Amino acid sequence: MRYDLNLLPVFVTLMEERSVTRAAERLGMTQPALSNALARLRVVMRDPLFIRERYGIQPTPLALELAPVLRAALAQIDEVVHGQQAFEPAEAERLMTIAPNSYAEFALIPAVVARLRAVAPGISLRLTPYGSDLSETGVISGTTAMAVGRFVEVQDNLVVQHLMDDGLACVVRADHPDVGDVLTRETYERLRHVNVLPPGRLRAGLFQVLERHGLKRDVAVSVTHFLAVPEMIAVTDYCATLPRLICARLAHDTRLKFVPAPVDLGTFPVDMAWHVRYRHDPAHRWLRTLIAEVAREAAGTAPAPEDAP
User: Fold this and answer.
1) Of the ranges 4-8, 16-20, 217-221, 230-234, which one carries the lowest mean pLDDT score?
2) More confident of the two residues 25 and 193
3) Cα–Cα distance list, 28 to 6, 142, 234, 261, 277 (Å)
4) Which of the 8 DSSP states describes residue 241?
5) What is the DSSP string of 3-34?
6) Among residues 1, 146, 157, which one has the least CA distance to residue 74?
7) Who's near 63: CB < 8 A, 6+ residues apart?
8) Which of 65, 70, 134, 230 has the smallest C-beta neighbourhood within 10 Å, fewest atoms?
């Protein structure tokens, strides 16, 4: 039997989106064109493949059986095609979408952009929200080139590379009446705190570390991004516990003072994840290398806990 390979991405996208409208948008097709492609798929497979329900479409048993096979086939085709393509960073023209969490977006991506401007000015980046977990980034479906952050659970179709580790330090306003060059355990517990909410399942991270050390923290306000912290700290007597690399990025702000945490709070990992279909894509591989180099350099400049900026 002869198969139209153009129909395979349609099937895979419908499986991932479970919506004709969203699948058409993602593929850059009109809904009638996608419906026509689906009709042809149904004829070839001799099965409805997708059943319309109140909130989208649901795959049939045959579609569920076909999905992993066709995903793997498309990934292998991509690897062969991309692997044969030459890539010259200085001459390349390409838009790549990545999903950094708020930490990576603030601490690493500016240096990545600066490096791209110097060595590959034709490559543009589009940042997409990290969301509450990897399923919301587009990296699992491959529509997003990669995600950068901390991952709790990773699907089998993703490759994960460890980039660096970072630690934690504290920040208060420069003229804080109760904090000198050292922040004691007693003072830390007496102060009120600004908390940065990580996405999704990572929200308990710092609370769990503090609990292991028996260190209490009275949270006055929780914010969703590191950029909100300096303004909160500068006008209050609050304290914030931040990654050391974030502290280094904020060190130029003379309104703030950075001190080591009262106890060693350990480190946390920063990783990069991408769909297996990009494993041998030369442009993707080159960008991964660049991001890894930036992360290594950033980790080397982050102050140690006892040397917080």
Assistant:
1) 4-8
2) 193
3) 13, 15, 47, 50, 20
4) E
5) --TTHHHHHHHHHHH--HHHHHHHHT--HHHH
6) 157
7) 11, 15, 47, 49, 50
8) 65
Pick from 70-84, 142-156, 171-185: least confident? 70-84
Distance, in Å, from the CA atom of 107 to the CA atom of 170, rounded to the nearest integer, reads 16
- Two tokens, residue 43: 């004829």
How many Cβ atoms are within 10 Å of 86's Cβ, its own excluded? 7
What does the pLDDT read at residue 6? 80
The pLDDT of residue 7: 86
CA 115 to mean position of chain CA atoms:
19
State the amino acid at position 89 in one-letter form: P
Distance between CA atoms of 99 and 272, rounded to whole angstroms? 10
Cβ-based burial of 189 (10 A; exposed 0-12, middle 13-18, buried ≥19): middle
- Above pLDDT 70, what percent of the chain? 90
Q: What contacts 24+ positions apart, CB below 8 Å, involve 64-71?
A: 66/11, 67/11, 67/12, 67/15, 70/8, 70/11, 70/12, 71/12, 71/157
- H/E element, 275: strand 268-275
